[in-house]
Design a protein that fits this description.
alpha+beta, single chain, four-stranded antiparallel sheet
Length: about 290
């Protein structure tokens, strides 16, 4: 079995960032836990009306390191600005926006995922990570977590750690990778289960609303996320998928339940954006 690779902390993240933007790669600082810095007080809760570097009306123009991947920049003046200085002093590594650089990263989280990739995907530039490898292809696509065990796709609207230039020539993004993001339609639900779906006013109460059943499901999902020691992205996605498969069609879930799950994920280092993406991907997987 492949032994884990020790990844050293970048000694001067700011200098590394400057060298990357010279090649047109959008970068951002990452703090301990390999996660982006949180929004400034003025941008908390998206009160500013948008994300920086997004071509949409009302996009945020905050000069600080806000909104995770959307803060990634290729402007050297921003990287050396006073607004980013405190973040670089606390940064443990450099992140980059693969989609913004026209790239896709296939994040292989363990030895089994690497073994699968070697038989299923064309060879390309490879970068060792703490537990696995990043396979980098030329071309952008949408990002999807947990496309198979131990495999995430990071490209548009996502960030990846910069862990070095890697080895080997970079191949064009193959259809085999794009196909991983295409979810198979969910199987038809048995007719016998239709009775648990509320029929509207005057209909019977959904049995999932019993406090014990629903509370146990939410608590188990929170515990699964909280106890994750690796593959946090995949664990969060699977926990969301499990909850939605039970309660996503019957109207049991409230905003409070979803907020509890998101809070558990964010306590493990997930961003609000990653939580929203994982939730949306799980709903798509189930046809909701």
């Amino acid at each position: 079995m492949t032994q884990p690779t020790t990844i050293r902390r970048v000694r001067d993240p700011q200098r590394t960032a400057l060298s990357l933007v010279a090649s047109g790669i959008p970068v951002l600082p990452l703090r301990r836990g390999k996660v982006p810095f949180g929004n400034c007080p003025a941008c908390a809760g998206n009160a500013c009306g948008g994300r920086p570097n997004m071509k949409t009306p009302g996009s945020c123009r905050c000069p600080g390191v806000c909104h995770a991947w959307a803060a990634a920049t290729t402007d050297p003046a921003v990287i050396v600005s006073p607004e980013w200085a405190a973040a670089w002093r606390r940064a443990v590594c450099v992140g980059y926006h693969p989609g913004g650089a026209g790239l896709t990263v296939v994040d292989l989280d363990d030895a089994d995922a690497i073994a699968w990739a070697r038989t299923a995907l064309p060879a390309t530039r490879t970068v060792p990570t703490t537990r696995g490898e990043h396979w980098i292809y030329r071309g952008a696509m949408r990002s999807v977590n947990a496309v198979r065990p131990g495999v995430d796709i990071k490209s548009a609207m996502a960030y990846a750690r910069y862990l070095g230039p890697g080895t080997g020539p970079m191949a064009d993004l193959p259809d085999a990778v794009r196909a991983l993001a295409v979810k198979e339609p969910p199987p038809a639900r048995p007719a016998a289960r239709a009775a648990v779906v509320p029929t509207g006013a005057g209909g019977g109460e959904c049995p999932h609303r019993t406090p014990v059943y629903l509370a146990r499901g939410i608590a188990m999902a929170e515990q699964r996320i909280t106890e994750a020691s690796s593959a946090v992205h995949a664990t969060v996605y699977r926990a969301f998928l499990a909850v939605l498969s039970r309660h996503g069609r019957c109207g049991c879930l409230t905003d409070a339940h979803v907020a509890r799950l998101f809070a558990a994920a964010q306590a493990k280092g997930e961003t609000a954006r990653h939580c929203a993406d994982a939730w949306a991907n799980a709903r798509t997987r189930l046809g909701l």
